[in-house]
Amino acid sequence: MIIIRTVESDADIDTFVEIRRRIQPESPLPREVVLEDRQKPDYLGLIAEVDGEPVGAASAGNFWGAPDGEFAAVNIRVVGEARRGGVGTALDRRCSQHAHMLGKSRLFTFARYDDEDSLGYFAFRGFEEIGRMQDVRFDLSAAVVQPSAPAGIEIAVMRDEHEHGMYKAALEADADIPSATPIRTGTFEQWRERHFSGRVLHDLSFVAVEDGTVVGYAILGRHDDETAEHWMTGVARAARGRGVAMALKQAQIAAAKEAGWAFLRTLNDLGNGPMRHVNEKLGYERKSEWLHLGGPLLDA
């Protein structure tokens, strides 16, 4: 018998994280992410059990790239031995119900390029690929970087007083990111909530300043105990083509190595040629690709 229940207790959170780790041991879900997500009023966390054994986990909420858009973001995962028995469909149906309550008309999800089970299920459900992200990593043990900055640009550690300037740069940077679902920066408060969670690494995040104005920024956050993750690198339109993004990432690499981190990770849309070029030049190596999929709600 399949039972779908919501994540309520600390023990449930541990179970949720463990299910995800069993399914994707190469990219485990940090517990802190679940704790942060549970503070959002739109978030739903689910555990699926078969005969009392936890075999699946799912989450649903507003799509982070466009909270006011048509998509609800869902993540549905089932352990291998429990697939093809209706568990994924039961989680899918509950997530679709939640999406409907949020006023959404479509679901957004993602799957690894080599996850044939998930891709097969979502294709059967009528989902289509709407984007693809490249997952790249940087081994800091071999890093030899000499940070530098373009003429007239100061690279500085991010401080509270920079945030409004960063937001102004984000209004241009977000709008120009290649994406099948255009990213909406939203209000300053929405932008800040998205980028400044408890996992942000303030001392490893930097801004580029020209004549007292923030023209670029690079935010780094904690992924796990060994890996820090690039959350966003953005440059104002007038400052592009001068090496600002490269300078920001060089500063992050040097600071992360000095702070004792082992790896850096980032995800880039395959259509984002300029940022992919920066990463390739710095020595980031491809580890995987993630397909972004969009599809209909499942009928109740």
Q: If you had to describe this structure to a student in words, what would you say it looks like?
A:
The protein has 300 residues and is α+β, with helices and mostly antiparallel strands. The protein has 8 helices and 12 strands. It has helices spanning 10-23, 31-37, 87-101, 116-124, 163-176, 188-195, 244-258, 273-282; strands spanning 2-6, 44-50, 53-62, 71-78, 106-112, 128-139, 154-157, 206-210, 213-222, 227-235, 263-269, 285-296. The chain is globular, with a radius of gyration of 20 Å.
Low-confidence stretches: none
**Percent range for β-strand residues:** 25-35%
Number of strands: 12
How many helical elements?
8
Major beta sheet summary? 12 strands, mixed
How large, in whole angstroms, is the Cα Rg? 20 Å
Order of helices and strands: EHHEEEHEHEEHHEEEHEHE
Distance between the termini: 19 Å
Give the integer mean of the pLDDT values: 94
Helix content: 25-40%
- Assembly state: single chain
Strand order of the largest sheet: 1-2-3-4-5-12-6-11-10-9-8-7
**Shape annotation:** globular
SSE diagram, text form:
Blueprint: E1 2-6, H1 10-23, H2 31-37, E2 44-50, E3 53-62, E4 71-78, H3 87-101, E5 106-112, H4 116-124, E6 128-139, E7 154-157, H5 163-176, H6 188-195, E8 206-210, E9 213-222, E10 227-235, H7 244-258, E11 263-269, H8 273-282, E12 285-296
Parallel strand pairs: 4-5, 10-11
Antiparallel strand pairs: 1-2, 2-3, 3-4, 5-12, 6-11, 6-12, 7-8, 8-9, 9-10
